[in-house]
Design goal:
By secondary structure, the protein is an alpha/beta fold. It has a seven-stranded mixed sheet with strand order 3-2-1-4-5-7-6, sandwiched between helices. The chain has a domain of 119 residues: 3-Layer(aba) Sandwich (Rossmann fold). It has nine helices and seven strands.
């Protein structure tokens, strides 16, 4: 477990905004069912979902656009969506509850803290990191989420055969993802570089507003897919 006294660079922007009555109602009425604390002892994931299911993390889920689509396509996979922003968390819960999804839980907090404290080694089958903050200025790049220390932590929590799937429209960050994920000896890149959008055997990544915005600006979207090596 990471040293709680050690300073850590923040990898996200703090966003502020007034919550609508609808958002507040979602947090108050369905939060007890949907929310999982970011701090605490390692979780029994079967208890979290009420049944034994493979579990995937959706890190930086935003408003839950891709989370809800992928969860609906794979109802036998548990999804833990993580975001620090209250409006996004409340929106995801409200829409997921409306759609009757029972395989999604939400962490309103920091992904690194949750992974470090609440997940046991080899307890999840994958993680999705779609369009994380690119921190494009050179002096800010240390704030990017996909760094060696984070990848090492995440790789420890993924079971052999599991995956990490990233997507970004920032070309420098895409290359960093390939290099950093490929440098961890427990992970392997079956595509030896960037991956196709559609991964054989995986749930397709849906288009989101962030991706569509990037495409309107002429940005090339890159996917990176790595898997946890099987024991030799």
């Amino acid at each position: 477990m990471a040293d709680p006294e050690a300073p850590r660079v923040r990898t996200y922007h703090a966003r502020r905004g007034r919550l609508s009555d609808r958002h507040q109602d979602s947090l108050a009425t369905i939060g007890a069912t949907w929310l999982v604390d970011s701090n605490g002892a390692p979780l029994d994931l079967g208890s979290v979902f009420g049944r034994a299911v493979p579990v995937v993390l959706d890190i930086g889920c935003g408003m839950g656009e891709s989370t809800l689509v992928q969860a609906a396509k794979a109802p036998d996979v548990g999804v833990i969506a993580i975001d620090v922003h209250t409006r996004g968390v409340a929106t995801l819960m409200r829409k997921g509850d409306r759609d009757g999804l029972t395989n999604v839980r939400v962490v309103h907090g920091d992904a690194v803290t949750f992974i470090d404290q609440r997940l046991a080694p080899a307890s999840i089958v994958g993680a999705r990191i779609y369009f994380p903050d690119p921190w494009p200025k050179a002096r800010h790049r240390k704030r990017r989420l996909v760094q060696p220390e984070f990848v090492a932590l995440l790789a420890d929590r993924i079971a052999p055969g599991g995956f990490v799937h990233c997507a970004t429209d920032d070309q420098a960050y895409a290359q960093q993802m390939v290099e950093v994920l490929g440098a961890d000896p427990r992970l392997e890149n079956p595509f030896d570089g960037f991956a196709p959008r559609s991964i054989p055997g995986a749930v397709d990544r849906p288009s989101t507003k962030y991706e569509r915005r990037g495409e309107r600006l002429g940005h090339l979207v890159r996917d990176v897919w790595v898997t946890r090596r099987l024991p030799s």
